[in-house]
Structure formats: C-alpha cells, structure tokens
Design goal:
The chain has 434 residues and is α+β, with helices and mostly antiparallel strands. The chain has two domains: 243 residues, BirA Bifunctional Protein, domain 2 (2-Layer Sandwich), CATH 3.30.930; 104 residues, Rossmann fold, CATH 3.40.50. The chain contains 16 helices and 16 strands. The chain has an eight-stranded mixed β-sheet. α5 packs parallel to α9.
C-alpha cells in the first residue's frame, strides 16, 4: 500500500465553501484600497535572514524562535518571510522608490511563515494583508491607514469596532521608558516567567505582552509609556486622537499596547471587534519611522498595518447567515435527464453564465429525484429542470427552492430577459432570508 501523504503540521488546505469568504475579502480589499489610491506590491516569499534579524529585532520571539531559516547551496542564510513590512521596505530601498519624491502608498497580500503552536486562526503558514505609507510623518497618515482598515472591516460586515490606541514615542522616549521598566521589573525577577526574565534586558516592553497570569498581575502596576512621552510625541498623539474624533472612529487608550516588533515608534494600534462576543483583535499596526534607515535607506517616516486573513475569515463565517449574507449561494442548479435534454442543458448553462448568472449543472445522469435532492442541498436559489419533453416544447421548469413554487417558462424568454430574471432571483433570495 502506497504512503498516504498529509499536509505538514501548521498548514492547511482551503476549499469551498470557506474559500468563498477569502475571495470576498480579497475583492473587497482591492476595492477599498483602490479607492484610496494604494498600489499593490509583490515581494519574494523568502529574503536574506539578516533583513528580518535587523528589521524585526533579534530580541523578538519571531527572530529568536519562530523563523523558518535555511542555508542555500552557496551557504547563504535565507528565511521564509515571517511578516510583510521588512520585505516591502527592502523593495522600497532597492528599487529607489524614495527617489520619485512622493509618498508611497503600498499594499501587499500573501503567505507568511512562523514556527508557532498551530491553533484555530493561527497556522505556521498563514496569510496577511498589509498596507504601508512611506514618506510621511504627518499624523494624518496614521489616521488614514486606521480609517481604511475600519472601512474594510465594516464593508465585510464586522460591527462594534473599537481602536485600541497607544503611543510608544520616539527613540528617546522609548529608551527612557525601557529604563523605567527595567527598574520596575527587576525586584520581581524571580516571580516572572522565564521568557519575561530573558526579555528584561533585551526588550522589556515585551513583558507587557506576557500571557502568564503572575507576570500579567505584576505588570498591572508597571509604569505607563504615556508618562514618558516628550512634547513632540505628545503633540503627535494628540493630533491622531483629534482626527479620529473628527472621523467618528471609536477608540480607547491602552497604554499597555506596545506591539510585538522592535521597529514601532509613536502610534501603535489594534482594531478590536466584538462580533465574537468578547473583544478580539483583527488588525494591528503602527508607525515605524526608524526602519527604512535601519535597513540602509534614507531617513523615511512610515506607518502601516497588517491583518491575518485566516482569523478574519473565521469571523466572517461566524457572522454570516444563510440569507443575504450567504456568500456561497448560487443562482441556478440545472437538472437534466434525457438524450436531448442533457446536451441542451450544457448550452443553456453556458448562455446563462455568459449573461452573468452562476449555474451549477448536474452531470450525474441520475434520476430526477436524486438530482433534485442535490439541488436542494446545493445552496442554489432556484433549480432549472429540463427533460426531453421540455426540449421538444421549447420549455424549461423553473423551481424556487425556498418556497417550492414551480412554473414552466419558455427557453427563449428565460434567456432573453436577464434583468427580469435577476430581479426575480433577488426577491427570492430576500424572501429566503426572512
């Protein structure tokens, strides 16, 4: 018996009906980003390891524990990308996009790779959509990317969105805060979890991200970054809040939000949705004014975000209904039986598809009752029934599956009046969701 192959742990196959939600997300994202004049960029799935070590930070868990790195045939260390920003910045520098003299609004979508413990919505191969605005230190850029993310999530049907907002200041503010955290946590060093002990000297801000109960308890009384913001950082943060208020975007200040990557400066944010009952982060990002220079480019301010597509599609499936929000509904399931009817059904299906309708044709050749059982389970709005008698009479049976109503109509009128047919489908779909 030949070996049975399985997908590696932490990877998964995606097919219908789930893939329909991915397609809906991608289509909506392209529309929203296109209206905001963001342009897509596609970067390699692997880069030189040093790009991520320098860009993300060697003290992070991503670089220290989670990257998929390998040595190529010439002895060079390469890494499957664990996030998208570093590769976009590398492309920005290498292709001298900064020489164009204008602000670059870019977006990307693709697979990322981290060696993590697989769980629902979090795989070792996962997918992200991200946006990056390079070349502006204006707080309006921070608010623009937040507003675009909120628009996208609302358009997809998520509600009760709230932005968790913080500022991590500039380099000087951050260093002062790091010193304060080291001073605060040092007396508790024997009570901290091992990861937090390791972070104390390397990256004490990450201790605030700990999920270990005792460490979380200790962190509740830790100093707040907001007490260490200089005048320029405070002005930037105040402007972001004012602009969010102007746009009616709900937010709450969360001084514990520091994000997981070393390159953040000033604004840090996560967008929370209550669609799962409890607050759940679906998008996160912030400003990273030092990263371009750190990777060898000119001093360039930047801001952006990324969202995990797996987690978002889980949310979309959970809030979807079987009615108007059923992304997998098809227009017609075409049932046919008979020497004349079966080839005629192929032609009818093709003509309907050319007119813009979705049509699934039953190719089993089984009896009408078996085909109708599949039609009822298909998610179609209506079934079209064609036998040899209907072909000879130039007719077809149209059955509305939700109500069970059935009528005979001529083939010529069915194909000649697509707008009328579209209106009938819309009404039937609405009635089926009531």
């Amino acid at each position: 018996m030949s070996k049975k192959f399985q997908a590696p742990r932490g990877t998964r196959d995606i097919w219908a009906p789930e893939v329909t939600y991915w397609q809906k997300f991608e289509t909506t994202a392209r529309q929203i980003l296109g209206r905001a004049v963001y342009r897509e960029i596609r970067t390699p799935a692997f880069e030189f390891t040093e790009l991520f070590a320098r860009g993300i930070g060697e003290a992070t868990d991503i670089v220290g524990k989670e990257m998929y790195s390998f040595t190529d045939k010439k002895g060079r260390s390469l890494t499957l990308r664990p996030e998208g920003t570093a590769g976009v910045v590398r492309a920005y520098i290498e292709n001298r996009l900064f020489a164009q003299g204008n602000i670059q609004r870019l977006w990307y979508i693709g697979s990322m790779f981290r060696y993590e413990n697989p769980q629902a919505g979090r795989q070792r191969q996962f997918h992200q959509l991200g946006v990056e605005v390079l070349g502006s230190d204006d707080p309006r850029a921070d608010v623009e990317v937040i507003a675009i993310a909120a628009d996208l999530l609302r358009e997809l049907g998520l509600s009760d969105l709230v932005v968790d907002l913080n500022s991590v200041g500039n380099s000087e503010d951050r260093q002062n805060y790091r010193d304060a955290l080291v001073e605060y946590f040092t007396p508790f060093i024997n009570e901290l979890d091992q990861d937090s002990r390791d972070r104390l000297d390397r990256n004490p801000l990450r201790i605030l991200d700990s999920k270990v109960p005792r460490t979380q308890e200790i962190a509740t009384e830790a100093p707040s970054i907001l007490d260490y913001l200089g005048a320029a950082s405070q002005k930037h943060f105040d402007s972001v809040q004012t602009l969010l208020n102007d746009l009616g975007i709900a937010y709450k200040i969360n001084p514990r939000l520091v994000r997981g990557l070393d390159y953040y400066t000033h604004t840090a944010f996560e967008i929370q949705s209550a669609d799962l009952g409890a607050q759940s982060a679906v998008c996160g990002g912030g400003r990273y004014d030092r990263l371009v220079a750190e990777l060898g480019g000119p001093d360039t301010p930047a801001v952006g975000w990324a969202l995990g597509i797996e987690r978002l599609t889980i949310l979309l499936q959970q809030i979807a209904t079987s009615g108007t929000n059923n992304l997998n509904a098809i227009d017609f399931y075409l049932v046919s039986r008979g020497d004349q009817a079966e080839p005629e059904a192929v032609k009818i299906a093709q003509k309907l598809r050319h007119a813009g309708f979705s049509v699934e044709i039953d190719l089993s050749g089984s009896k009408f009752d078996k085909q109708m059982k599949r039609a009822n389970n298909s998610g179609a709005i209506a079934a079209l029934l064609l036998g040899d008698r209907e072909v000879n009479d130039n007719q077809i049976q149209l059955k509305w599956l939700a109500s069970g109503e059935q009528e005979a109509t001529s083939l010529s009128s069915l194909l000649a009046e697509p707008e009328q047919l579209r209106s009938q489908l819309k009404r039937a779909k609405q009635q089926g969701s009531d």
